Backbone:
């Protein structure tokens, strides 16, 4: 029986794509995808049937992939990043759940835009974080704003997908204003355009100023939380080790125990001697 493989190709650089993803594409009878994404993997395409389509043609891509499988072709439906994150996997499963078709489906993970962009600026997602798409093509803007507000109140580091487009310039500014009600103006922000592609651009800014930078749909915007800080050309969001241990000596702080829940302290506590731990 033919199989439909939903393949995450990561940010677009072949050396960041899993071996399994590359082999699946190379061994497929048919490869389906958004035109620009297929261009990123053209070195993996030889004799396969190729079905390309443009922006906003996601249903058509999914339908074409399903039809290829039903016709007996092992098919790779390629997606940038991870197939299950703002990509084609949810649509495929939704369509199958509303039909009587029985198809063998395989999901092959890829490096997400959030992870790829974060790696270029250090450790901005070192603690709890979330992703929010600013595209209102499928989600009402009011709902998106509610999610931004909730993430801001919860002090998540946030990666914004689809931050700007030709038609949608103001959403990122509104998101900025929501965040400024909860975070300092100097909160570090990274704007990464086309991560790991030839036209990659990495820009560091602050919450108050990042909207002045030039970026579009191929960018991701990472906003730190209340603990995030700049270290040289990096953004660091602490995991919390300094709350329990001295980062200089590695010794446990007074009142804390390794392997036990963190006890809240008003200020950083002195470290314990080896005998006290």
Residues:
């Amino acid at each position: 029986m033919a199989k439909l493989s939903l393949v995450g190709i990561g940010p677009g650089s072949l050396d960041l794509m899993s071996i399994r993803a590359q082999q699946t594409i190379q061994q497929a009878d048919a490869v389906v995808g958004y035109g620009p994404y297929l261009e990123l993997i053209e070195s993996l395409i030889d004799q396969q049937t190729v079905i390309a389509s443009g922006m906003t043609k996601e249903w058509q891509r999914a339908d074409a992939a399903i039809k290829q499988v039903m016709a007996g072709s092992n098919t790779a439906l390629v997606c940038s990043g991870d197939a299950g994150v703002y990509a084609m996997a949810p649509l495929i499963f939704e369509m199958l759940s509303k039909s009587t078709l029985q198809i063998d489906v395989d999901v092959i993970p890829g490096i997400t835009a959030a992870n790829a962009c974060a790696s270029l600026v250090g450790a901005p997602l070192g603690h709890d974080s979330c992703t929010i798409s600013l595209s209102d093509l499928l989600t009402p803007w009011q709902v998106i704003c509610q999610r931004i507000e909730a993430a801001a109140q919860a002090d998540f580091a946030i990666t914004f997908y689809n931050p700007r487009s030709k038609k949608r310039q103001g959403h990122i500014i509104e998101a900025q204003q929501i965040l400024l009600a909860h975070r300092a103006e100097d909160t570090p922000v990274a704007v990464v355009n086309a991560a790991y592609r030839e036209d990659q651009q990495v820009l560091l800014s602050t919450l108050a100023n990042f909207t002045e930078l030039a970026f579009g749909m191929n960018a991701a915007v990472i906003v730190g939380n209340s603990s995030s800080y700049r270290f040289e050309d990096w953004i660091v969001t602490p995991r919390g080790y300094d709350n329990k241990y001295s980062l200089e000596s590695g010794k446990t702080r007074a009142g804390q125990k390794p392997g036990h829940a963190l006890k809240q302290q008003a200020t950083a506590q002195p470290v314990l001697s080896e005998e006290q731990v």
User: Anything to note?
Assistant: The domain at 3-111 is CATH 3.40.1010.10 (Cobalt-precorrin-4 Transmethylase; domain 1). The longest helix spans residues 58-70. The chain has three domains: 3-111, 114-236, 242-277.
